[in-house]
Amino acid sequence: MGTEHFDATAADWDRDEQKVIRARQVARAVAAAVPLSPRTRLLDYGAGTGLVTQALDGQVGAATLADNSTGMRGVIRDKITVGALPEGARVWDLDLDTQPAPDERFDLIVTSMVLHHVHALDRVLSRFAELLEPGGYLCIADLDREDGGFHGHDFDGHHGFDRDELAAQLTDAGLVDVAVRDCTDFDREGVTYSVFLAVARRPG
Questions:
Q1: Which domain holds residue 132?
Q2: How crowded is residue 157: how many other Cβ atoms within 10 Å of its Cβ?
Q3: What local confidence, expressed as pLDDT, does residue 171 receive?
Q4: Into how many domains does the chain fold?
Q5: CB 74 within 8 A of CB 14
Q6: Per the CB 3.0–4.6 Å rule, which of 20, 25, 178, 200 could disulfide with 184?
Q7: Which PANTHER family does the protein's record reference (predicted)?
Q8: pTM for the model
Q9: CA distance 37 to 192
């Protein structure tokens, strides 16, 4: 996926209070849906400025934040330096649309408002499954199916997702215990968009 927009907006990203609130709501939904502990190894995929990881701080252990935007990774590193993100957190340049899954395993993968930008959806879901420790959880927060108004006419990703279709794709990726529930919603230019949380587990 192209990173120009995200590179350009990274420095001001956290000034949008709605983005900060949404990240906290996603983190609360994740904490309510899956077991967390200081031993939980977290991968925040498409982490942006790390807002979800910030909101999960104290509830999980070692954190890896992956984003293919240079600007976003720079903000993450600055946050680690000043203590806004956990000391020792790792920062990865990773795009599973085009790159293989690294040889690592995580207990929890969280991705928030990222999947609708992914082109090779089945491939990326399979790579998430590869990255999970047996018994590990994948949590996806993203848009319900919408009419294209969220991004506008020139957007080449997904206009949200049908919950049943995504659940079937998660099952096809080899994941089990798939559940999709309401997570949050937010307004953009007077239109309210709903966000779901899809939760799945790698068998083991």
A1: 4-201
A2: 15
A3: 97
A4: 1
A5: no
A6: 25
A7: PUTATIVE (AFU_ORTHOLOGUE AFUA_2G14390)-RELATED, TRANS-ACONITATE 2-METHYLTRANSFERASE-RELATED
A8: 0.91
A9: 34
Question: In this model, does residue 31 exceed pLDDT 90?
Answer: yes
- Alpha helical stretches, state H, the chain: 4-9, 17-33, 51-56, 70-82, 121-131, 163-172
* Other CB atoms within 10 Å distance of the CB of residue 61: 15
| φ/ψ (deg, to 5) at 73 | -65, -35
Which letter, b or e, does each residue of 14-46 get, where b requires 16 or more Cβ atoms within 10 Å of its Cβ? beeeebbebbbbbbebbeebbebeeebbbbbbb
| Among 141, 133, 131, 105, residue whose Cα is nearest residue 32 | 141
For residue 169, give both structure tokens.
């794709």
CATH number at residue 102: 3.40.50.150
Cα–Cα–Cα angle for 36, 37, 40, rounded to 5 degrees: 80
Give which of 83, 51, 48 is closest to 69, Cα–Cα.
48
Sheet-wide strand order for 63-66: 90-92, 63-66, 42-45, 106-112, 132-143, 191-201, 176-188
The b-or-e profile of 133-156 (16+ CB within 10 A means b, else e) is: eeebbbbbbbbbebeeebbeeeee
User: What is the DSSP secondary structure assignment for residue 117, as one 8-state letter?
Assistant: G
Q: From residue 3, give the alpha-carbon distance in Å to each of 95, 115, 117, 151, 173.
A: 11, 14, 11, 15, 26
Say what angle helices 163-172 and 121-131 make with each other, to 10 degrees: 50
First to last CA, the chain: 32
